[in-house]
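We were asked to recover a plausible sequence for a given structure. The inputs and outputs are reproduced exactly as logged, with field labels preserved.

PROBLEM: sequence recovery
POSITIONS: 142
GIVEN STRUCTURE:
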């Protein structure tokens, strides 16, 4: 609720001991516990009275449901959550397909590089001398 960790709580205890002294600290702790208990009782009674005043169908009324953020979460987002999870799963499938396709393209490029590491110039240099000789154009052949 207050998001207080162990170091902060220890610091508060040391601060309370310094401020109030070790003699008054147990008495103040008892008073604080009584106040907290009193406030909880008031809140519980108010919630019960509100449930009785609203009538049947509201016996399980939770005051937190009256918060607009909680109301939206409970009534609107709960209906949308299955659709969102389906969309997320489809997007993850498409993402994995894209990754595999890019890996396939990268592998194909590596295979092509291993066949001809220097490109077309190396292929022509590796050809036999007879293949490099150009035959003249024969106009009678056409």
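RECOVERED SEQUENCE:
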């Amino acid at each position: 609720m207050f998001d207080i960790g162990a170091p902060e709580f220890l610091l508060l205890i040391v601060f309370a001991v310094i401020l109030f002294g070790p003699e008054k600290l147990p008495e103040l702790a008892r008073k604080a516990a009584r106040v907290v208990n009193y406030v909880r009782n008031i809140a519980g009674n108010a919630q019960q009275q509100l449930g009785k005043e609203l009538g049947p169908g509201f016996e399980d009324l939770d005051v937190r449901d009256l918060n607009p953020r909680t109301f939206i979460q409970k009534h609107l987002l709960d209906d949308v959550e299955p659709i969102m999870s389906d969309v997320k799963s489809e997007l993850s499938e498409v993402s994995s397909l894209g990754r595999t396709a890019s890996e396939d393209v990268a592998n194909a490029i590596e295979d092509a590089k291993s066949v001809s590491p220097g490109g077309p110039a190396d292929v022509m240099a590796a050809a036999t001398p007879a293949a490099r000789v150009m035959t003249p154009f024969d106009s009678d052949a056409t």
